[in-house]
Amino acid sequence: MRNFILFIRRFFNLILFLALEVVCIVLIARTQMMQGVDIMSSANTLTGKAYQKQQDVVYYFGLKRMNDSLINENARLRNLMMIANSYDTLADSSAQLAVVPTDTAKKVQYNDYVFRTARVINNSVASGNNFITINRGRNDGIRKGMAVISGTGVVGRVEYVSAHYASVISVLSVKQKVSAKLKDGTFSPVTWEGDNPDIMHMENVPQQIKVKKRDSVFTTSYSFFPSDILIGTIVGVSKSKKNNMQTLHLKTATNFRNLQYVYVIENKMSAERQQLEDSTKMIKK
Q: What pairs with residue 236 in β-bridges?
């Protein structure tokens, strides 16, 4: 207590001066004079900047949670879109939805595809056969052969699965072919030549097929991908005089250099389809 009194006595004049300054500033700020308006405006500006900096810090540390939330919401919306497409298909094949038998309606009220979200934890674009590691595995319902897409286009196919992780062979692999189609329905495989990770090629397209730059190329139902997933857009065309065919050069819809989140797609009907096709192959033999 004695030291505090000595401190007050020593700096009494300075403390009194600062206190009077504060009182003066408060009195001026409460008036409608120009000085008061300027002081309040400056104070509000400083306060606003401080809150903005605080919000920026909070926003930065909340980005991961926000990304996870958005990717899960996108997966939910994609599932709803598949359900809607199932109803549209049923309505197109019948005069009225109401006349479809009850048991048939039950079969299409759930979509054939289930989308699961995953985060990319390792990715390569520089080798001949590129692989992507995701943080979902067998315990999350991931199985070999499932298609993998990004928010903008195709990515690859699940090749190896452990309990908590999966390895995806990218479409940027010389061993990988994707069945593709143009807007007029013409289909041909799309491949990657092992060089530029931004460019893929659609070969053996007849020259009478008219294409132009920025036309989109999509997957077909013949591939392991669902139909109508964007592969890329045409950025160039090469014509061959030998076989009267043309090769389309596509800019990939997915940016493989900055791939962070993907969707793993489960086709509920794939096992039945595979069993049927295997049976057909046995009959042919």
A: 249
pLDDT tens column, 73-82: 676 676 666 6
Shortest CA distance to 263 belongs to which of 148, 169, 181, 175? 148
| 197: amino acid identity, one letter | P
Place of tokens 């199985």: 143
Residue type, 127: S
User: Could you write out the three-class secondary structure of 141-203?
Assistant: CCCCCCEEECCCCEEEEEEEECCCCEEEEEEEECCCCEEEECCCCCEEEEECCCCCCCEEEEE
Distance (Å, whole) CA 164 – CA 141: 10
User: What's residue 100's pLDDT?
Assistant: 33
Q: Output the six-digit token pair for 114.
A: 């289930």
Tens digits of per-residue pLDDT, 20-32?
777 766 665 565 5
Pair 246, 210: CB distance under 8 Å = no
pLDDT digits (tens, 9 = 90+) for 185-225: 898 999 999 889 999 999 889 988 889 999 999 999 888 89
Rounded to whole angstroms, what are the CA distances from 88 to 85, 93, 96? 5, 9, 11
Give the contacts of 209 (CB within 8 A, at least 6 positions apart): 182, 184, 186, 246
The predicted model scores a pTM of 0.65
